[in-house]
Batch of 3 targets.
Target 1
Amino acid sequence: MKVLTFVLVLVGLAAALPSGPVNPDITGAQVFRVNPTSAAHLHYLYGLFMQDLYDFWTEPRAVGKNVDIMAQRWMVPVLKATLSKVGIEHTVIIRDLAEMTERSKIANDRALEVAKRTNPNPKHNMDWTAYHRLDDIYGYMDYLATTYSDIAQVESYGKTFEGRDMKMLKLSKGGSGKPIVFIDGGIHAREWISTATVSYMMSQMVENSGSHAFLDKVDFYFLPTINPDGYEFSHTNNRYWRKTRSATGSPFGCKGVDPNRNWDFHWDEVGTSNEPCSDIYSGSKAFSEVEMRNVRDQLNKYADKIKVYLTFHAFSQLWMYPWGYTSALPADWKDLDNLAFDAVEALTSVYGTLYEIGSSTNTIYAAAGGSDDWGKGVAGIKYTYTVELRDTGNYGFLLPPSQITPTGKETLEGVKVVGEFVAKTYG
Ligand SMILES: [Zn+2]
């Protein structure tokens, strides 16, 4: 009996962890929107965030800024009681996450089906009316390199933990030694709009390169997903998977590291967890993840030419610059702020989508080990930004496929401003 109880406790524990070993049962899971109205509330929520009991879809940022928290079915009453006890207002924004996830999957599958049926170009399967799997994205990159071989080149810059290729497209209209804008997406697996937006911008710049004058003076490197194992897993097993898929040695079988807590600059100092089952697990050491080492090597290789490094996430509509590990600002923060302002102004002019601008710590609680901090602090790239794309939580990670192209269009306008700035300043 004792053994059985022990086993049941273990099973219960493993199931209760936010990124457990198996596809978590999200039946009855709910997403709460809470509004911290005082510094005490905010502090309390941050404490809750660090406890790993819930999956924070957005992190506690500031008084008056909503925080979206997902609770598994058996934790729903606990969270409700906890929030009520401390007097934090909350509403349930998703009543049944399983049902909503299923509906979202059906919508995307249908969109993929239509895309396949109406595909105008039999040479690739990519489009921006649906979220595509890795094969379609890579197939499209190869297609671009073949079709536009004078300006586009695809490289595999390493393998993932599970042995997948990591691919990058280099867009260069010739001439050597040009400044580079380096763009990656999908570091967090479930943030599908990030991968889709990076591939959208890549598509527009390569296929319409003639209409972007700055490309005569600036090269663009695109890495649509720098966490391919996680991305595939979020399609096949767990829609809410965030981390890599590496083995951690966890006794519960928990896998993966938060790749945006894994970079070697003030690594593991703040806003991270040492628990392998946590969604913000920083890893056994800095750069424990092969995928992040691979991206790091590319950033290092071209560090003297990379003038801007943009890393895309979702969601919250934020355009952020370092530092993330401290609330102190870099000495040249005004320069970063100015360029962010111009980019966001162009983005907003398309559909009126509003973004907030600021340093990572002033817009989100401190979190060390992010790629943007490393890019600035170690690689010495002056302009590094973390951009949180659409939306502000209406759909969150389940942003409908119909919003991919609009998100791509508006973000491209912001990135064009960045391209023009680099051409003018360094070209
Ligand atoms: Zn993210």
Target 2
Amino acid sequence: MRQLLYISTATPGAAIDISGILATSLRNNRRDGVTGLLWTDERRFLQALEGSEDAIQSALLRIKFDTRHRGIVVLQDRAIAIREFGAWEMARRGPADTADAFDGRMRQYLSGASPSVRGTFEGLIAARRAA
Ligand SMILES: Cc1cc2nc3c(=O)[nH]c(=O)nc-3n(C[C@H](O)[C@H](O)[C@H](O)COP(=O)(O)O)c2cc1C
């Protein structure tokens, strides 16, 4: 199984329909057996994807050609024996979310993730919060 972690930036001026990305991703990833986590503050995206080699390769190709984001940098790409994410989830802090509630949700999503994956998510979230 392959696990990939990348970061990207929302294309300035692009109308980002987060709900649309969520709906398409849930549909495709369930079909293809892809699990992982997409975090966004609507300016940056950080995504972990895991699944079969073929499923990750084709998801990455589709994602790379998506003009809604740019500057995709793969941070980690490795073989894994067992999944670290139980499902595919999207995390963004909604207006009704308290910081504590959001942190709790992230902790839950990342509870099975390896230290390097968890550290990358936590680092980016802290950096964006400080910006
Ligand atoms: C930040 C970001 C993350 C995305 N993540 C996924 C994903 O995990 N799975 C997926 O199938 N599409 C994802 N997409 C959407 C793809 O780029 C593409 O639009 C979609 O796969 C096309 O699916 P369709 O051919 O079924 O319409 C993502 C797009 C963006 C901008």
Target 3
Amino acid sequence: MSTPSPVTPLDSRAVTAREFRDVIGRFATGVTVITTEHDGVRYGSTASAVSSLTDDPPMLLVCLNRNSATAAAVRDSGAFAVNVLAEDHVDLATRFASRVPDKYEGVPTEAASNGSPLLVGAIAHLICRVAEQVEAGTHYVFLAHVEEAMSYPGHPLAYFRGRFGRMETAPEASVLREVRARVLDAGSDVEEVIDTARWAEEFGIDAGRVHRALVALADEGLIRRQSGEYLITPVPDSIIDEVYKAKLAIETGVAELTVGHTTSEQLVRLRELMEDTLGFVKDGRFTDPEGWVRANERFHEYMVELAGSAILLDTYRRLCLPGLNLRALDTASYASSSLLDDHRRLVEGYEAGDLTQVLAVLLQHAQRPLEMRREDRLRRTADANPVG
Ligand SMILES: Cc1cc2nc3c(=O)[nH]c(=O)nc-3n(C[C@H](O)[C@H](O)[C@H](O)COP(=O)(O)O)c2cc1C
């Protein structure tokens, strides 16, 4: 008996060209210009279908449409250069993807050792000699030896779903921790434009690393980005009110779709996540505000996940509730044990398939943050003005 092919598709549904383009467009790439010279004429084409092939010997491959003038010139000359574009090279990428008569007009170049033009300002140049060319449908695949490779400082241009963009390097965990702690220490009623250069100096690191951490914190909702600046903003009651209304709308919608339609495994998981939240409130305080925020996030997000809609989950995440809560809460904040009772009653409602109970609890639960804030203020005022 023959072994089944390991590449037997699970789902062999035909994929249209349009579907394929849409899906493969999610594979983000850098952007290059493939340049060559043949019979005294310079050619160049923007290309993202470039891949490293082997490092010993150094080889790469480039896929060029057979209609492309550059493809014909590479085929005939047997040589080309890969110019890796920098993030501010959208104009070059567009120019070399067009059919303008002279793509090189006004573009500074130098000649590579194999005669191909090198675009000045690219962040890398790879000088290549074609080893093999394969015809694949509408395209040639050129397999090439890399004869020389040069790199320069700079950040790459990115291409994702048909649009140009920038690649962000993930911030280092240690820098992110420090910058986040600094933002949280600011308290919830402070308004401050973050002075990146000063923070960098104080942390003893370069400003780029602080900047990458700020980008991540803005995505999380801990700080705001406005006209190129990063701001620590107060968290007024009005924002909490607005965000919690949106949260309630999503959660009640999800409850209507899911209560009574969950599997027993989902209910077990929901209960586990609810129980994980229980240890964080004690004697009217959060024992560990960040721990609470994270456990609470996992529990609530799981409820939303039950609806089975990635779009809904994404919308919910855009409310940036964890960031908002981290800014609003600290170890001195008043924490009501009703939060935990709500969580218990929510899960009981889900387990009983009781939509009315779940909706009622969600409504009360959405009012807790403002109730707790009011109580918190009263307690702080009373502590500051003790009677007697
Ligand atoms: C971001 C981007 C990536 C591209 N990638 C490729 C590619 O990998 N292969 C290709 O044949 N064409 C690609 N193109 C299209 C060519 O750049 C375009 O057809 C160009 O006009 C060809 O020029 P030529 O005929 O002068 O060689 C890309 C275009 C853009 C904007």
